[in-house]
From TrEMBL, chains A, B:
<keyword id="KW-0413">Isomerase</keyword>
<dbReference type="Pfam" id="PF01177">
    <property type="entry name" value="Asp_Glu_race"/>
</dbReference>
<dbReference type="GO" id="GO:0047661">
    <property type="term" value="F:amino-acid racemase activity"/>
</dbReference>
<dbReference type="InterPro" id="IPR004380">
    <property type="entry name" value="Asp_race"/>
</dbReference>
<comment type="similarity">
    <text>Belongs to the aspartate/glutamate racemases family.</text>
</comment>
<protein>
    <submittedName>
        <fullName>Aspartate racemase</fullName>
    </submittedName>
</protein>
<dbReference type="InterPro" id="IPR001920">
    <property type="entry name" value="Asp/Glu_race"/>
</dbReference>
<dbReference type="InterPro" id="IPR015942">
    <property type="entry name" value="Asp/Glu/hydantoin_racemase"/>
</dbReference>
Length: 236, 236
């Protein structure tokens, strides 16, 4: 007999993004009854080293805390695990190796959502660690989609301060900086934007900024994949 | 050595209320940094019999699923457990008996918040099961606070349909019905309202209804108690 479906959410990075992701899961199912919603368990423990700092070589690795979270989610009975943070996917293989339950990769879900829109180019907004890792770019390239990246100057002047402004609760200031970066990518010819850091869509929504063509939110793409998986398992 | 603090949240009743409660926990700490937020694990599994139906003798008991959730939260390492549903406190003693981690009672947190406002009377909006159990009324009476209750007719015409409208996503219609009940309690002389069903504050906020003097939201009172407990443990 198949193990019961239970989605494990590895959160804490930050804690607000993990809560927002749970809303996206509820919206993705769009059910009239509580009982049809995705059963989930959430590890939302923000006492974990900063991922951006670690990847920049300026702080300790979050890997021990990430493995602890994955082990706890296995212990509570998760059948599948998702990571509610783009940058933490840097440690995806190590976490998969530590987990009985399979992990779903956010870049796979995002690529599916992007490919469905058939753009020739996308602008990718993400942490330096995510940009350097190349998960998104390699996957998009397989669909003949070119990825436009922020410049080093834009990362330093707009992305990093914008992101940390959101983290400390100054969503309006952060939103303005992130919107400037988003506009720059559109001005360089990006047909679509991929907002691959959980703080970004949240901050842009907060200030009411919208690109001319709908952006792809990897967390939303991930929620859609989770909802489909749950609905498939329920109907079998 | 004391066990590390980890708040276990028993949710799923409904899943949206459990997500809202997590927002209230984040707001209650009001911290500038992710790392200062409450570490938490959430069991948000909505495949559980309806509490109102069970207490009315019209459906199976949710107790087996509640105990399973409490056991899972113990297994993941919860040091304290809260139940993100007023009505489910009907099974509080049985759940406490099944748990190594202590459970915090929502009516204790609420009484503390109500007593701080020193009203002579409050109007209590809650499910029939919660009203019948008398947890809130007995605690308020110890502070010489009289509790005004909805009539049977108001429960049938406003509370029950209002609540289920919210559960099926029709927050506007539900809000109108619940606001009518809230106004009736104020008209009968309630100085303050206690909105002791997770759907109620959510629905009243959604339609912009506000009583003349701020209402007490038990979930918010509970979040405040959790935040204080976490901050005490961090500083020791």
């Amino acid at each position: 007999m198949a193990e019961p479906f239970l989605l494990g959410v590895l959160g804490g990075m930050g804690p607000l993004a993990a809560v927002d992701f749970q809303y996206q899961l509820l919206r993705a199912v769009n059910s009239a009854s509580d009982q049809q919603q995705i059963p989930m368990a959430v590890w939302n423990v923000p006492q974990i080293p900063d991922r951006q700092q670690a990847l920049a070589g300026r702080g300790p690795s979050p890997l021990p805390q990430l493995i602890d979270g994955v082990e706890r989610l296995n212990r509570i009975g998760a059948s599948h695990i998702v990571i509610a943070c783009n940058t933490a996917h840097h440690w995806f293989e190590a976490l998969q190796a530590a987990s009985r339950a399979p992990l779903l990769h956010i870049a796979d879900a995002t690529t599916e959502a992007v490919a469905a829109l058939s753009p020739t180019s996308v602008g990718l907004i993400a942490t330096q660690g995510t940009l350097d890792a190349g998960w998104f770019q390699r996957r998009f390239a397989r669909h003949n989609i070119e990825t436009l990246l922020p410049t080093a100057a834009e990362m330093a002047s707009d992305f990093v301060p914008g992101c940390y402004a959101v983290k400390r609760g100054d969503v309006a200031a952060g939103g303005e900086q992130l919107a400037r970066l988003a506009q720059a990518l559109l001005d360089r010819g990006a047909e679509r934007l991929v907002l691959a850091c959980t703080e970004v869509p949240l901050a842009l929504r907060a200030i009411g900024w919208q690109p001319p063509r709908a952006a792809v939110d990897p967390a939303e793409a991930m929620a859609a994949v989770c909802a489909r998986l749950w609905q498939q398992q329920r109907s079998t």
